[in-house]
Automatic annotation (TrEMBL), chain A:
<keyword id="KW-0804">Transcription</keyword>
<dbReference type="GO" id="GO:0003677">
    <property type="term" value="F:DNA binding"/>
</dbReference>
<dbReference type="InterPro" id="IPR049945">
    <property type="entry name" value="AAA_22"/>
</dbReference>
<protein>
    <submittedName>
        <fullName>LuxR family transcriptional regulator</fullName>
    </submittedName>
</protein>
<dbReference type="InterPro" id="IPR027417">
    <property type="entry name" value="P-loop_NTPase"/>
</dbReference>
<dbReference type="InterPro" id="IPR036388">
    <property type="entry name" value="WH-like_DNA-bd_sf"/>
</dbReference>
<dbReference type="Pfam" id="PF00196">
    <property type="entry name" value="GerE"/>
</dbReference>
<keyword id="KW-0238">DNA-binding</keyword>
<dbReference type="Pfam" id="PF25873">
    <property type="entry name" value="WHD_MalT"/>
</dbReference>
UniProtKB/TrEMBL annotation, chain B:
<protein>
    <submittedName>
        <fullName>Uncharacterized protein</fullName>
    </submittedName>
</protein>
Length: 895, 65
């Protein structure tokens, strides 16, 4: 197997593209973008470069020919004389994945000096690219003059039709701003017939690539061979004008004492051309050169130092330079890097297997070690796996502190796939940690924890384990702690992590910011589960503020989602909504496909929507969250889902269904006060609804006393069960300094109002309802009023409450002749929450009469996101329509 | 499924090692590779292998089982 062997040897090989890294988190590798240089014996072919030049008139050029037809060098030769930017990308098998492909595409443009604007987002998920990113790329290219030429060499390695479709999309929408040149062995999955019909395709195929006798004669002459015309013609016939065949002919003949006779013999021979000639040419090399060529055939690319390592020599540099100068085996990529001509690489590999059976794994192992020393982790892992040296490969992951990448989704697919081949024979702390990481990443808790125990046993035997191993272990402990709802274990893990972190080389910590971000998220999630909101907030805020761009986007999104849940649980639906939206924007910013992320933000939004009595929206959000394949083993997410779902069922009057969804099946080490409280409240509500008020009250006894959110709801149930005294006692037990949010205070005011109403004190009742209305209006909290009962309706229907409830709680404007007194035609919101930057952007465009669609395009957002911003904008301004929003914003000098 | 793939020229023993799953006979200036093929994926894989080794496929056909 050929394994990519490009490394980030020195800072020169890292492209100067700011902090843009590929979705795998590696610095981009310049050799991928290098135009192969032409050997001294290269034959320029004017008729073909001419055709390519004419091809600039069409958006798409396809150079399609068999291996060794001379495609790559032809295009390289042509681009050398172009006076416009040329982005060159040699496609590798891993760029099958659309996200990776487009990241490299962008980087190729940037490397050739025509970067796209910063507004174009780099894909972050290797397996996907969002439509938005493709539109951004196309839009950025539109109108470029001269249009950059993008050459995709070895495009046949992209077999995914997705990438081809995406390329077609970009090509079509970039108009004249992009010239695409595909160099490929077979026809790409483009709708070529359409391009042909429209005359927008330039094709150079095998027949045109084949050398004609004059060209063949010139090529042989470059190799110092002069042959009579008919000899050349029969050679061309024998090789079908195949460039590689002719070049090999020349090389073999060159070495022969009598070239002409040799070529005659070759003509008469019936062997397959490349097979025969390559063996001939190889045989004529000195033994050490033969050995070198065979050994490097396991590498996609190589530099002298790597080759020295593989061949136990010190002079590989000289040999490589000579090979590049003298024959067609070795192509130069610049900066000391070479590669084998793909055709010869394949044949040489077969020779290697026959001549040195069993050597391949050793070569891969040496290559892996060399890569590891040079800090090229992905390459080290690929070669380590090819050598089936799992002890080394697992240790490479752990020592690099890359264990978090099993979870972040950035490299996770690759890592999981790679290690799925690891057998049970590999032992030691690193393989166990890798096994634990794989299992935990798939929520296979039992196996994961077992492997974690094995790892711990190894660690306790060997005291000298490197700090990276211990930190990786502590990190996985935190994952296990979170999934088992075990705060003690999480705290212990965090403490261990803090201790060993001092001993970990700082550059590794900088390289893997995701590890700390994930650890903090797990710690925060576990604390939240245990009901320690403030401690949880501390860890989660730190995680949410983690640097690291795309590497930490998922833990950041998850932490922000958790923070939103805390706000919700504290009774602050507006804040929860803002925080949840911010979390979702975070993933959108990095063009993760939508919906994406942990889903916790959507759960919070759904719960908020229920409080606002937007039941359809709540359902839609829950459905979206379910689409994300929510991890039901994660206690906080499962409980978050239970809250939103149970509340939605209750709001729809479906008490039994609420009860069923309120208690998710979880086996956690400690109970969660808020998850349990919810379950008790729902149970109590069901008892009450079914006429068992005694049992309902009984259940409430078990509620914790220090959470105003639950206390207030309990008071509501007590009141409904006919115990106003108990209700008021509960409300009075809430400490004044607990500063609960409006979702709590509104409910509390309504309970007091109802108690007053029952006592016949309508005036007091009205005062409390007014207070509740004012508190609720800004947040559009409708649910508490709908839950309050029938008694509230007459109060709301009459002045002065009617005007406070109009439009957001009760339908239609205030009836009657003329404006109602005192309040004015449209009550201004008491306080306006500050608009977010995005909301301001949307508002300004609203004022310009732009449609939702237009705003989405203009702001590079999805239509759904714009709608979400509009909703929160309306809420903050206390309006229902866009025209009102603009009016209100003008009134308030926001515009 | 049994297939045979006919390529131009005589294949060396070494190159034939690139097709360990197939048998080989040489006839009239061509090499015939034949054997059972599990599915289409393998079939296309074989074709791609021919291509990357620079072999010229003259004919490919399914043989009666």
């Amino acid at each position: 197997m050929v394994v990519s062997a490009v490394v980030t040897g020195d800072s020169n090989t890292t492209a100067p593209a700011g902090d843009r890294v590929d979705p795998l988190g590696d610095p981009f590798l310049r050799t991928r973008f290098a135009v192969p240089s032409r050997p001294a014996t290269f034959l320029p072919r004017r008729r073909l470069t001419q055709h390519l030049q004419e091809g600039l008139q069409t958006p798409l050029t396809m150079v399609n020919g068999s291996a060794g037809a001379g495609k790559t060098l032809l295009v390289a030769d042509w681009t050398a004389s172009l006076d416009r930017p040329v982005a060159w990308l040699t496609v590798e098998a891993e760029e099958q994945r659309p996200g990776t492909f487009w990241a490299y595409f962008l980087q190729a443009l940037s490397t050739c000096g025509t970067p796209l604007s910063d507004r174009v987002h780099c894909p972050v998920d290797p397996s996907r690219v969002s439509h938005k990113v493709l539109s951004e790329i196309a839009e950025d290219l539109v109108g470029r003059d001269p249009a950059p030429v993008v050459v995709l060499d070895e495009f046949d390695r992209v077999s995914a039709s997705e990438v081809a479709e995406q390329l077609e999309f970009v090509l079509q929408h970039a108009g004249s701003g992009l010239r695409l040149v595909l160099v490929t062995r077979n026809e790409p999955m483009f709708s070529l017939h359409r391009y042909r019909a429209a005359g927008t395709l330039t094709e150079i195929r095998d027949a045109e690539l084949a050398l004609n006798p004059e060209e063949a004669a010139a090529l042989l002459e470059l190799h110092g061979l002069t042959l009579p015309a008919d000899a050349v013609r029969s050679l061309v016939e024998r090789t079908r004008g195949w460039a590689a065949g002719l070049r090999l002919c020349a090389l073999a003949a060159q070495e022969s004492p009598d070239p002409e006779t040799y070529l005659k013999e070759f003509e008469a021979d019936h062997s397959t051309v490349a097979d025969f000639l390559l063996a001939e040419v190889l045989r004529r090399q000195p033994p050490q050169t033969q050995d070198l060529l065979l050994r490097v055939s396991v590498l996609d690319r190589f530099c002298p130092d790597l080759v020295n390592g593989l061949t136990h020599r010190t002079d590989a540099g000289l040999i490589l330079a000579e090979l590049h100068r003298d024959n067609a085996f070795v192509e130069q990529l610049g900066q000391g890097w070479y590669r084998l001509h793909p055709l010869f690489g394949e044949i040489l590999q077969t020779h290697l297997r026959v001549r040195h059976p069993g050597l391949e794994p050793d070569l891969h192992r040496s290559a892996a070690q060399w890569m590891r020393r040079r800090g090229a982790l992905p390459e080290a892992l690929a070669h380590g796996a090819a050598a089936a040296d799992w002890g080394f490969t697992a240790a490479a992951v752990v020592d690099d502190l890359a264990i978090g990448q099993f979870f972040t989704g950035l490299r996770s697919d690759d890592l999981n796939e790679l290690f799925s081949r690891m057998g049970p024979e590999a032992t030691g702390p690193a393989p166990e940690l890798v096994r634990a990481a794989r299992d935990l990443a798939h929520s296979d808790l039992d196996h994961g924890v077992a492997h974690l125990h094995h790892a711990e046993a190894w660690l306790s035997v060997d005291e000298d384990d490197p700090a990276t191993t211990q930190l990786s272990w502590a990190f996985l402990e935190a994952v296990a702690a979170r999934l088992t709802g075990s705060p003690a274990r999480a705290e212990q893990a965090a403490e261990t992590a803090d201790e060993v972190r001092q001993e970990v080389p700082p550059h590794l910590l900088d390289k893997h910011p995701e590890l700390s971000a994930l650890l903090l998220t797990h710690l925060g999630s576990t604390r939240l589960w245990a009901g320690r909101y403030e401690d949880a907030r501390a860890a989660l805020s730190e995680a949410a503020d983690c640097p690291g761009g795309i590497l930490t986007v998922l833990p950041r999104e998850e932490s922000m989602g958790h923070l939103a849940l805390i706000d919700y649980l504290n009774g602050w639906p507006g804040r929860a909504e803002d925080q949840a939206l911010a979390a979702m924007t975070e993933t959108e910013r990095f063009s993760l496909p939508q919906p994406s992320g942990s889903g916790i933000g959507r759960l919070v939004l759904a719960a908020v929507a229920v409080d606002r009595h937007e039941l359809g929206r709540a359902q839609a959000l829950l459905d979206e969250a379910d689409e994300l394949d929510l991890d039901t083993h994660d206690p906080v997410k499962a409980a978050g889902r239970a809250i939103a779902t149970a509340r939605l069922h209750l709001a729809r009057g479906n008490a039994r269904a609420a009860m069923e969804s309120a208690s998710p099946a979880l086996a956690t080490t400690v109970a969660s006060p808020w998850a349990d409280s919810l379950e008790q409240l729902v149970t109590s509500t069901v008892h009450l609804a079914e006429g068992r008020s005694e049992t309902a009250a009984e259940v409430l006894q078990h509620l914790p006393e220090d959470q105003p959110t639950w206390t207030v709801e309990a008071a509501h149930i007590q009141l409904a069960a006919g115990r106003p005294g108990a209700a008021i006692d509960l409300l009075d037990s809430v400490p004044a300094d607990s500063r609960p949010g409006p979702a709590v205070t509104v409910r509390a005011a309504l309970v007091r109002a109802q108690v007053a109403q029952m006592a016949g004190d309508t005036e007091t009742a009205r005062r409390f309802v007014a207070q509740a209305l004012i508190l609720a209006r800004r947040e559009r909290l409708r649910r508490p009023f709908l839950d309050a009962g029938r008694w509230i309706r007459p109060l709301l229907a009459a002045a002065p409450l009617r005007s406070l409830a109009a439009e957001w709680l009760l339908p239609g404007p205030v009836p009657g002749n003329g404006p109602p007194p005192a309040v004015g035609p449209r009550p201004a919101p008491i306080v306006v929450q500050e608009l977010s930057e995005r909301e301001r952007d949307v508002l300004q465009r609203l004022a310009q009469m732009m449609s939702t669609q237009e705003i989405a395009v203009d702001l590079y957002l999805s239509v759904n996101t714009v709608k979400t911003h509009l909703k929160s904008l309306y809420r903050k301004l206390g309006v229902n329509r866009r025209s009102e929003a603009v009016h209100r914003a003008r009134d308030m000098r926001l515009l | 499924m049994r297939y045979e793939i006919r390529v131009d020229g005589h294949m060396s023993d070494i190159l034939a090692e690139a097709f360990p799953e197939l048998e080989r006979v040489v006839m009239s200036g061509q090499t015939v590779l034949f054997g059972s093929v599990i599915d289409e994926a393998q079939l296309f894989g074989l074709l791609a292998r021919c291509q990357s080794l620079g072999l010229h496929v003259v004919e490919m056909r399914r043989m009666p089982d």
